[in-house]
Amino acid sequence: MKNLNSPEGEYTWCFACGKDNPIGFKLEFQEENDTCVAYFTPKKEHQSYDGRMHGGLISVLLDEIMGHYLFVLEGKPAYTAKMEVRFREPVFIGEEIKCVGKLLKRKGRLVEMQGEIINKNNKVVAEAVAKMMLAE
Fold first, then answer.
1. What is the architecture, at CATH level 2, of domain 2-134?
2. How far apart are CA 115 and CA 129, in angstroms?
3. Within a 10 A sphere around the Cβ of 91, how many other Cβ atoms?
4. CA distances from 80 to 33, 54, 108 (A)
5. Burial environment of residue 131 by CB neighbours within 10 A (0 to 12, 13 to 18, 19 or more)
6. Which of 105, 103, 100 is nearest to 124 (CA)?
7. Most buried among 28, 29, 112, 121, by the most CB within 10 A?
8. What is the pLDDT of residue 2?
């Protein structure tokens, strides 16, 4: 697996992957079979209803796994133009999840990406499709 983290000194305050952000997720990325993968274990401060991760924070994970992979592939930032999320099952506090992002198609600067959140039983518990616009 190839490391897909941003070079040192870049984007260190990103909420999802920044190493200097004291309240961030601090995600680390690897390449796996033409996808981007990161693992995350939600803590109590990430919950909505007792024992379940907040849906907005699940959306952050999906947005980041897609956007970061596109950043690595293209070497420049991309901005989420539209994202559709489907929540299938709860993400439980304290249970490690796998975040997976992949490129679906590209037309010029507009790229369609897919993201999935997979639980310990290898079941997709949340997924998203996003249209992202590459910076000029």
1. Roll (3.10)
2. 6
3. 25
4. 24, 20, 15
5. middle
6. 100
7. 29
8. 60
For the chain, which ranges sit under pLDDT 70? 1-4, 6-9
Beta bridge partners of 118: 98, 124
Give the angle subtended at the CA of 11 by the CAs of 82 and 44, to the nearest 5°: 75
Q: Are 120 and 131 in contact (CB under 8 A)?
A: no
Which residues does residue 47 pair with via DSSP β-bridges, in sequence order? Answer: 53
pLDDT at 5: 72
- Rounded to 5 degrees, φ, ψ at 135 are -65, 150
* Residue ranges of domains in the chain: 2-134
Q: Are strands 97-107 and 110-118 parallel, antiparallel or unpaired?
A: antiparallel
Q: How many CB atoms lie within 10 A of CB 54?
A: 15
pLDDT computed for residue 12 by the predictor = 86
What's this model's pTM, rounded to 2 decimal places? 0.92
Spell out the alpha helix ranges (H) of the chain.
55-74
Check the CA dihedral 13-16-22-28 and report its sign.
negative
Query: Over the Cα atoms of the chain, what is R_g?
Result: 14
